[in-house]
Known about the structure:
Layout: H1 2-14, H2 19-25, E1 34-39, E2 43-48, H3 66-97, H4 102-115, H5 131-141, H6 145-168, H7 175-179, H8 181-192, H9 201-204, H10 206-217, H11 226-242, H12 244-261, H13 266-291, H14 295-310, H15 318-331, H16 333-344, H17 346-349, H18 352-369, H19 382-396, H20 403-428, H21 435-446, H22 448-457, E3 466-469, H23 473-478, H24 496-509, E4 513-517, H25 521-527, H26 529-538, E5 539-544, E6 548-553
Parallel strand pairs: 3-4
Antiparallel strand pairs: 1-2, 4-6, 5-6
Keywords: Membrane, Transmembrane, Transmembrane helix
Organism: Pseudonocardia xinjiangensis
Protein name: Dolichyl-phosphate-mannose-protein mannosyltransferase
Amino acid sequence: MEQDRSTVVERASAGQGAAVALRQAARPGSHIPLQRGLDPVTGPIRVPAMEPAGGPIRSTSPRTRPGRGRHRRAERRRAEVTLTLIVLGALSWIVVTWPFRGDQAVYALIGRQILHGQALYTDIWDIKQPGVFLWYGLADLTGLGEIGTRALDVVAAFAFGACVHVLLRGRLTTPWVRRMLTALATAVLLLAAGPGDFGQLEMLCLVPATGAFALVAAEPRRAPTWRRIVLAGLCVGVVGVFKLLLAGVVGLALLVYLVLHLGGRRRFAAVPVVVAAALVPVGLTLAWLATQGAFGAALHVWLVEALEMGSAPGSRDPARVLEGLGRYVLWMFPVVVLAAWQAATAWRRRDPLDLAMGAFVLLDVLAIATQFAWWYQWYFVSAPLVVLALRRLDVLAPRLWGRWAVLLAALCLPMLAHAASWALPTVLDGGGFTAASRDRIDERVAGYDTIRTELAAAGVRAGGSLYVVGDPLYNMLAGAPLVVRFDGWTYDLMTDGQWREVATEVGAVEPAVVMVDADAREWVADRGQDLQQVLARDYVRYRTSAEGTWYRLR
């Protein structure tokens, strides 16, 4: 027995990993069950089995139970999806409960009248391109009113998230960031935008703008096909149907990417292809306007009146520019910081997508500087900023613990505070689940009850003839169409010639009731002398309140 033990000890020493067996074999009087092994020098040997005195070892390592690890990962995924759906669902419902404000009201009124046969720019006027009015007109066809239109705003936000997912899924390495792309991009819009932002054409154009890049840049290691380049150009043209200036921003940024990404002659051939494709939707829109006899009026509004209004007094107020920029940066603070971080290294890395996104940002800032610089116009720059921010988040994801996680959470506080400023009052108002709750939300967000009370006090009949110099919500809530070509909502940007035209049209159409909004009183006094003469000649002032001054036709 001792000789057997010595043999076992010698051969186990020549083998690999038998330290425990050696110690057990050295104990006098021990009876050790032997297992067959392979000595690298002498061939087959018997090595003591490593079994403790208490019995065989039962391993609980996950490696021996692969099903348990998969089950835990599946549970985490289900919890992740459930939490995401709850958060996005709650944010989406809050957006659906929001009423229209003045801009959305005039879009809806003009869109409805266009679908009922009136011609844009000749029968009814606005400085914008037709896209936003057609969007609201189509939403009106659903028969769901404001709720249906707001639901389409939510659909547009999710479509933007889907485009970002397609664009970036092949460029990110962190699994959870790649899984959450759609949710993160959508949540940014739902958290940062308010009632006056959703439904603006800058928000609606995010989908075709991001879709153009998703078509050509989704596969970074492959050149896009000509078919995809043409489709991307068509997306740029769709943006042009909403706003020509924004189409120029997207188109130039897209060309920056194609020139940097493509090789040889293709980079130069892509330029005319994109331009030609982008002209198709705009050309079709002009052809439609031509069938209504509004071709010349459309070109005059787009190319002449837009420039004239841009040069009107107060059209580029520096205070408004700074206010809009400050609000946007504050509400999008984590996105702005991460995007700036990513863009700072784009030139060194020579990344075509990041450089194109940087060009997108710069071009849009320049475009805003040439416009009226309302705060909601900044939301179009969300497309490149979200793309850049998510790429930087992918880089930081492996380090998102400890102080990095705390820092990112701190960056999100302004955005979350802004979202809470709208979400919490909505919850306190009842969440919009009942008619009484929605009425409270309508009054808090847009003053619907105040406007209805004022309409009743002024004796305005539903569907009556009403012209308002000011908030078009009065027309919408009264069910009164726009009867004068100029809607009266852009009173602070109209040129002197447009003020004279308003006076001429009011005198010709003779609306039964004219209301001058309290916010528009000073503008009428300063620049609407011709309109004042028409009101003094043809109308009688019969009511003055904190909301405005009312005139009735003699």
